[in-house]
Structure formats: C-alpha cells, structure tokens
C-alpha cells in the first residue's frame, strides 16, 4: 500500500491520520497514513530515510515546516511566499513541496462558512508562521483590503513587503487589494472578516483587538480549534460576530494535500461534520 506520514514534534495529538483514513475510505483509495514523532534535530535525516523507504508523501507540522521548505527540491509559489511547506510529495527521489494551509482556510471560509472574500476588508492578526502560510491565498481571493496586524509591527511589515514583491501575486485580483501592515495596538477600522493567526490564545494572552474592529455580522475566525480558540471566539460572539474555529481549515488543508497526492478531491465537508460531531 502507498505510504504517507505526518511529521511533527509533538505529534500524538494530530488528527491527520484519522482524517486521511476517512478520505481514503470514502474515495476507495488504498493507502496507509501514520504519525511520526521526529526528534527536533532529526528532520533532514528522517526525510532521507522516508525517501529511501519509498514513502509517497508527508504532511509536515510544527516545528518543521520551514525546514521542509529549505530541504525541498521544488517548491510551489505558495511555499515561496510562506517560506514554509506542509505537504511533501516524494517522487523519484525528489522532494516536491506545497503548502495547503491557506487553501484550506480560504475554502473553509468561502465554501463551508459561505462567506466570499472578494471585495471584503480582512484583518489578519499575527505575522508568524501561521499568518505567513495563509496570506498569499487570502490575497488571491481579491479582497478590498487586508491589514496584517502584529504585536511586533516590523514582522507584519516584512511579511507584507515580501507578498507585495512576489511575482505570483502581481495579478489583477490581488493587484487591486490594498495590503497594509500595522501594530496590534494601532487604531484599527472595522472589518468584515477577522482571522486570528497569533499564538496568543495558547499562552492565555489577553484579547488582541478592540471590539471596534468588528462590524455587525463580521466573521471572526480563529485558526486554532478546541479550548484555545474559545476565549477569543466567545468575546467576538458576544459582540455580534459570526464565529468559526479552525477545525474546518484542518480538514480542508488535509483535503488539498490528499488531492495533490491522489488527484481525487475527498468529501471534506462530510468528514468535517463527522469530526465535529465526534468532538
Ligand atoms: P506560528 O507558527 O504559530 O505562527 P510563530 O511563528 O512563533 O508561531 O508566531 C507567533 C505569532 O503569534 C506572532 O505573530 C506573535 O507575535 P510577535 O511576532 O510579536 O511575537 C504572536 N503572538 C504570540 N504571543 C502573543 C501574545 N501574547 N499577544 C499577541 N501576539 C502574540
């Protein structure tokens, strides 16, 4: 059977094996997908071993996404923009890298939550790896404006500059989008969509923004799911926002990986509903 792995540290909590097993079942694909705990200093050697074993593909999660980008023989434009990869195809001894995080986020917002992003005002909170992974695909939906707000404003500025320069984003849709970097504590106007890509909720940090950043009916999205996402989403809900956690993004980014590897689109919506019910 074709072999796939998810590499991370820690990895025990990963739901990817469960999600991909269900995708395989529902699409009639014969494959095996397993977790692999990789020692922090052993990512490169692990990948060489997997290549030698004939493993077909890997998902890569924290903290190895940047190392996966650095090791890849070929990278997609999305990987160049994110400087990180979460989906590796191992083909003829070569590592082909993609990043499906942003695609998964966009699909969860546009298809599952039914909110088309074209022409909207988006606030992206954070400028670390999680934010970098989604900014390119968000720009390609053609919003009116994206503000990247970060505690360390210089990091938001660097991320914005890197995206402004990238040839894959010099297209008509993204060319019309106003892209701005701000400090988290700057005065923010109101937005249609607010996406939390900071690690603040894991640290139990205070809420990052003022409620004036919300419009009635704004969509407030936290890329985390489960308990860490709750304080921010509860606060947003109390201010009249529609709220959504990152479980759909998790399933949709997995579906994009599955499509890259197998050429078949699994019924992500169905798997998301089952996962949500099981939680
Ligand atoms: P990740 O891969 O999860 O994005 P990261 O690259 O370390 O992790 O980035 C963490 C992000 O969360 C950064 O945007 C960070 O802000 P700084 O760039 O100023 O460090 C943000 N972050 C972490 N803790 C935070 C807090 N308590 N309040 C606000 N932002 C926080």
Keywords:
single chain; 279 residues; alpha/beta; Rossmann fold; 2 domains; 6-stranded parallel β-sheet; binds 2'-monophosphoadenosine-5'-diphosphate
Question: What would you say about this model in short?
Answer:
The protein is an alpha/beta fold and 279 residues long.
Task: Summarize the topology.
Layout (H helix, E strand, L loop, with lengths): L1 E7 L7 H12 L3 E7 L5 H11 L3 E4 L4 H7 L2 E2 L1 H6 L4 E5 L2 E5 L2 H12 L8 E5 L3 H11 L5 E6 L2 H13 L6 H4 L2 E6 L7 E6 L17 E9 L7 H9 L3 E3 L2 H16 L5 H11 L1
Parallel strand pairs: 1-2, 1-3, 4-6, 7-8, 7-10, 8-9, 10-11, 11-12
Antiparallel strand pairs: 3-5, 5-6
Helix pairs in contact: 1-10, 5-6, 5-10, 10-11
The site of 2'-monophosphoadenosine-5'-diphosphate (ATR) has 15 residues, from helix 6.
């Amino acid at each position: 059977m074709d072999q796939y792995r998810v590499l991370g540290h820690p990895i025990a909590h990963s739901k990817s094996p469960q999600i991909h097993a269900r995708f395989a079942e529902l699409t009639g694909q014969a494959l095996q997908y397993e977790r692999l705990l990789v020692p922090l200093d052993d990512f490169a050697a692990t990948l060489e071993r997997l290549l030698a074993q004939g493993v077909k593909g890997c998902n890569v999660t924290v903290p190895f996404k940047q190392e996966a980008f650095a090791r890849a023989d070929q990278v997609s434009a999305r990987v160049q923009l994110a400087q990180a990869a979460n989906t590796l195809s191992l083909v003829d001894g070569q590592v082909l890298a993609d990043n499906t995080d942003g695609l998964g986020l966009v699909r969860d917002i546009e298809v599952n939550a039914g909110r088309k992003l074209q022409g909207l005002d988006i606030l992206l909170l954070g400028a670390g790896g999680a934010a970098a992974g989604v900014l390119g695909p968000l720009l390609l939906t053609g919003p009116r404006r994206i503000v990247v707000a970060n505690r360390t404003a210089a990091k938001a500025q660097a991320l914005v500059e890197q995206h402004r320069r990238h040839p894959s984003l010099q297209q008509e849709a993204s060319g019309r989008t106003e892209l701005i970097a701000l400090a988290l504590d700057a005065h923010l106007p109101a937005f249609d969509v607010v996406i939390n890509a900071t690690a603040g909720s894991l640290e139990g940090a205070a809420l990052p923004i003022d409620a004036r950043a919300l419009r009635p009916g704004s969509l407030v999205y936290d890329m985390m799911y489960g308990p860490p996402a709750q304080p921010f989403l509860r606060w947003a809900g109390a201010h009249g926002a529609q709220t959504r956690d990152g479980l759909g993004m998790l399933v949709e980014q997995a579906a994009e990986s599955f499509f890259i590897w197998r050429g078949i689109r699994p019924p992500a919506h169905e798997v998301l509903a089952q996962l949500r019910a099981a939680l």
